[in-house]
Amino acid sequence: MFREIREAEKQFVVQTYKRAPVLWERGHGVWLVDLEGREYLDMAAGIAVNSLGYEHPAITEVLAKPGLIHTSNLYYTRPQVELARALCENSFASKVFFCNSGTEANEGALKFARKWGKDRRQIVAFSDSFHGRTMGALACTANPRYRQPFEPLIGGVRFATYNDLDSVNLDGEVAAVIVEPIQGEGGVRPADPAFLQGLRRMCEARDVLLIFDEVQCGLGRTGQLWGYQHGGVEPDIMTLAKPLGGGLPIGAILINEKVANALEAGDHGSTFGGGPLVTRVAQSVFDTINGPDFLKQVLEVGEQLHQVLRRAVARHQFVLEARGRGLMWGLVLDDKVPVADLVEAGYKQKVVMLSSGRNTLRLVPPLILKAKHVEIFEKRLTAALEEVALALA
Prior knowledge:
This protein is an alpha/beta fold and 393 residues long. It has two domains: 2-56 and 292-392, Aspartate Aminotransferase, domain 1 (Alpha-Beta Complex), CATH 3.90.1150.10; 68-289, Type I PLP-dependent aspartate aminotransferase-like (Major domain) (Aspartate Aminotransferase, domain 2, 3-Layer(aba) Sandwich). The chain contains 13 helices and 17 strands. It has helices spanning 2-12, 45-48, 57-64, 78-89, 102-117, 135-139, 144-147, 193-206, 257-260, 276-289, 294-315, 339-348, 371-392, and strands at 24-28, 31-34, 39-42, 95-99, 122-126, 157-160, 174-179, 182-183, 189-190, 209-213, 237-240, 251-255, 319-325, 328-333, 351-352, 354-356, 360-363. It has a seven-stranded mixed sheet, sandwiched between helices.
């Protein structure tokens, strides 16, 4: 069966992905199950998407009685308004625009910034950033490998160095600065609080919008509801997507009042964005994550995971650093060690992990991860690291 599926995928699906040699059949909790019934500990969560893991009642109970699925944004629906209210009342925002993905959210954020800025069109982004694959979001993504095949992009974007305020230049016609409070694809790099605070001051001094891309680090991933809370500053615009739908596609652009005042009917739109079914699911996901004890557990289990990674650093010379927050961690390897080798060794040990940047193992498990799962993970990671070490010997 697996061979047939793999051959059919090669024949009928555009070959833009390098897929892992495994076929998932189902999942439960923090576990993925393959075609042969083998269970893998999931430390990837569909790239930080499956915030509540698999078969969580907060999601399955809504899907069991889906009600309205789609109406378009020509009409009012209660679930959309209720989710928008919840997001605004629990963040800096006064308004929300719904879309379908992180890259769409970032595209919309750039449009909103340019509309607000009027004649000011330039955007400042950062080294090692990743904001998506569409033309505007890609223009703000630093990796040349992603950018060069599709140039010329939208233009008007310049790059500064992440975590280096001295590199930030807001001279000229700058409308906005876009930054990830923790870079995901760029190697799991947390922003220094002083860096974010400095950006806030610079943007206020020059009347420039500050956009936080929280597509990967937002909604509980860091142990706080929002990544920006660790920096002690608020953005003017924040983009959200991956965890919000718990596996269903939804994105959101959260904006403050001054940005909202610059927008009017017809400035932006989405046929599917904020549909009644996906917003009902997202509301249930949000309520679960925003519960009184949920984020406390993320912090506690995240610290346990941090200690596991610190032990890995101490044990192996080619493991250089552990960095991250909450349940978003990167294990930095020596440049001579392909991170893909460690990911592949993980599959042999029945643990699913991701790569990030040039040399970083990325861990973004479901937020329902518990202490007992971290203990299992340590054993499997240790075995995978020992396989890589043996190959280096």
